[in-house]
Amino acid sequence: RRGRGFGRGRGDRGGRGGRGRGGPRKDEEEWIPCTKLGRLVKAGKIEHLEDIYVFSIPIKEHQIIDKFIAKDALKEENMAMFPVQKASSAGQRTRFKSYSVVGDSNGHIGVGARSNKEASGAMKSALIAAKLNIIPVRRGFWGNKIGAPHTIPMKVTGKAGSVTVRLVPAPRGAGIVASPVPTKILQLAGIQDVYTGSTGKTRTRGNFIMATFYALRKTYGFLTPDLWADNGTKRDPTDEFSRDCAKLQ
Questions:
Q1: Within 10 A of 109 (CB to CB), how many other CB atoms are there?
Q2: In sequence order, what are the residues at sequence separation of 6 or more whose Cβ sits closer than 8 angstroms to the Cβ of residue 93?
Q3: Which residue, 165, 138, 166, is CA-closest to 152?
Q4: Contacts of 55 (CB under 8 A, 6+ apart)
Q5: Could you report the per-residue pLDDT of 153-186, keeping only the tens digit for each?
Q6: CA distance linking residue 136 with residue 50, whole number of Å
Q7: CB–CB of 52/37 below 8 Å?
Q8: What CA–CA distance (Å, rounded) separates 142 from 152?
Q9: β-sheet with 75-88: strand ranges across
């Protein structure tokens, strides 16, 4: 016969069946949209991600990106993870800061940075932030317009802190001429050939990542002659489907 003893006896707990470990994971629960855009996306009223960018509608739910870009197409990469400290009355508080990049290698890239008490929490939060920050990347040609776009359409520059990154169009076959940090970001954006140059303290990896991201964001900031054509005006989806949105609430 076993005595009670002084240990943490677990014999009378009835096993581990009632501890909630066998149910559905929190990540896999059904998505219940909280924003007007989210409700329209879930209802199928908005068919393309570009329709959101045309009207500069802010994306507040990361499930919207999961709806448009397949999970196997969207690649994730944790670019940096380091501890950060803050002085408080009780001493120093250490947290972990993570930089994550997501992209489909087909003209979409997102960068997110978040801090958390735990490393896994920081990575998860940064991944969600990267999905919310996804932007379209414009691609173009060097020289003749033959085949699919392979490089950036013009020279662009991005700056974060002291780090400045310059991207220059390159001929087909040149590849990505860059250090490892911008190379990974450019690959996830779908850029095949590009020359790069950087100045400043590039060892500050967070600023190096953000400067590259800001440079890619400028590719749609130039109105080149091929974008002068009048494509007609469309109504804002949130205005066009306002009645449907009221029914979906």
A1: 26
A2: 85, 86, 87
A3: 138
A4: 236, 237, 238
A5: 999 999 999 999 999 999 999 999 999 999 999 9
A6: 8
A7: yes
A8: 8
A9: 75-88, 91-103, 108-116, 135-136
